[in-house]
Design goal:
Blueprint: H1 2-23, E1 24-29, E2 32-37, H2 44-52, H3 64-83, H4 89-103, H5 122-139, H6 152-156, H7 162-198, E3 203-208, E4 211-217, H8 218-239, E5 245-246, H9 263-275, E6 280-281, H10 285-290, H11 293-319, E7 330-331, H12 349-373, H13 383-407, E8 413-414, H14 416-425, H15 434-437, H16 439-452, H17 456-462, H18 468-474, H19 477-480
Parallel strand pairs: 5-6
Antiparallel strand pairs: 1-2, 3-4, 7-8
Amino acid sequence: MKKLLTVCTLISFVLTAVVNAQQTRTEKDLLGEKQIPADAYYGVQTARALENFKLSGVLINHYPGFVEAWAIVKLAAARANTEVGAMKPDRLAAIEKATAAIREGKYHDQFIVDWYQGGAGTSTNMNANEVLANVGLELTGHKKGEYQFLEPHDDLNMSQSTNDSYPTALKVAFLLRNDRLISELEKLATSFRLKGDAFLEVVKMGRTEMQDAVPMTVGQEFHAFAASLEDEIKLLRDAEKYLYWVNMGATAIGTGLNAPKGYAEKCAAHLARLTGKPIVPATDMLAATWDQQGFVVYSSALKSLAIKLSKISSDLILLVSGPRAGLAEINLPALQPGSSIMPGKVNPVVPEVTNIIAFRVMGNDYSITLAAHSGQLQLNAYEPLAGVAIMESQSLLYNGSILLRSKCIDGITVNERVLSRYMETTVGIVTALNPVLGYEKATELAGEAYKSGKGILEIIREKKILTEAQIKELLDPVKLTGLDKSKYVKTKGGEQ
């Protein structure tokens, strides 16, 4: 009986070993051997990163644009290496197939290391190298792990270091996503312009320091919102120029160790062709390997946009306040009930969440500030923080712009009766009387209006200070706005 049990145990052990062997493959690195899931396209260094950096749960594939950027960088490097005679054509062919698949959106589930990591992005670079190698192997008829045909270090990382490929991949990702963000911001600005056209002659009171000031039109207000966003678009276009200089070919610290002559220039040229951006080698590779100027400048532009969107959103919240005990000058689309206890309440949820997004982007910018100034000597190890912060800011601003346009601005209407009542009772139009009556007399009339609760026009008529003809000439609200219709060409897409 004991012999039978022993035999059964042995058979069970052997079968388990066979099954496990079928389910895993063995890879090794500096620290020794490690079992990798047989169906995984990543390798041993990725596996170690998965053990070491279980931090945020935000994986690099959370932002597909970043994964695609790695494929572009590795493809540009492989083409450059081939042109300078460092890489064999068959290896390039495998990398071409692998990077094409990644750019098509395949295998993204294999890019699984956490954004938050030590090592200046080494784990991310190796995750990319290993996945691309194994994808390339399979697509050329080989098995995963048969690195004698395509090797993560020798081939996918040829003439590179994490210290040049990682910041370059970040810049490529930012550049491509900047185009997407700008495209959506242009649509948002157009939405404001269309509302400006629709409300161009609707008169309202302007306010300074939350006090009645002088008349304007709702259209002028919305055209101003659009103009301010268009300024931010220009700033984003200018800021991206600081991302054009890359340090591919710098390798470890900027000296170009192990990079063939001509590689840096050819790699940058391929990056330019693949992205459609005028990417060029940095003039000083040593400086470019630790300098974070591009990230700081671009993040500052995102922060500026966030500040602008927050200001506009806060204005919308004020303008819609009420509806009975606030300004109530405009109406926002009603998206959802606003209170679990107060019946009939509808909150300005879209401008509010736009503010939340803006605050997050401002915080991300400060994180980038800290990361940029904390690098030591020839490398900045905190680039992963700059990377995830900018990726998040771009994503939030992009999605937030879509939401603000489609769920808020496009559906805004104006309460003209409310605006007319304000114009009749405001003291603000007294400013127009300064040239005729003088500042002191105008101030006296304003004081009387505040004390009595009467409107300026009512007092002027009672005291017969001006004739009706004079009132019409001096206090015509439309004239007071300084509205020049010729400044506002009908926005494309609007009704004529």
